[in-house]
Design a protein that fits this description.
With 142 residues, this protein is of the alpha/beta class. The chain contains five helices and five strands. The relative contact order is 0.23.
């Protein structure tokens, strides 16, 4: 039993997976697509990863505005949530992702990753932060 974390960007999808004990999150890949609306291959790859890692739940980053309202990106994420639930049959939890990209960028800066290379990793690291936040929240509820 594992949980998958997703960071949904306009042309990429960062993917993270929990360990079997649901303690830590690890980034595993970034799924790229040519156009924002072209999700068929992205959803197919997510289904492959769900089978490979025996995923039982998905956590999807929910990009809210800083004033707690839901903007265009948030609406697209809610649409993706419905698609994922229909296609996979798994529960999808929306998780507030405000500032995860900023935190991911800062972590890469501290790790010495060059600015021009950061865009190659930011979504995967953001997905890891989203999932880790969710796992920590669940652990605190026990």
């Amino acid at each position: 039993m594992r949980i998958m974390g997703l960071d949904y960007g306009s042309k990429t999808m960062g993917v993270a997976i929990s360990d079997p004990l649901l303690i830590t999150a690890q980034g595993i890949e970034i799924i790229r697509r040519e156009k924002e609306t072209k999700l068929r291959k992205t959803l197919a790859r997510i289904e492959e990863l769900i089978a490979e890692y025996e995923v039982t739940e998905i956590v999807l980053g929910f990009p809210k505005n800083m004033n707690d309202t839901v903007g265009e990106r948030g609406e697209k994420s809610l649409e993706l949530k419905e698609m994922l639930e229909r296609r996979t049959g798994l529960p999808v939890t929306m998780w507030d992702e405000r500032l995860t990209t900023v935190a991911a960028d800062k972590a890469m800066m501290e790790a010495g990753i060059r600015r021009e290379n950061r865009k190659d990793y930011v979504d995967q690291i953001a997905a890891t932060f989203i999932l880790q936040g969710y796992l920590d929240s669940k652990a605190m509820q026990k």
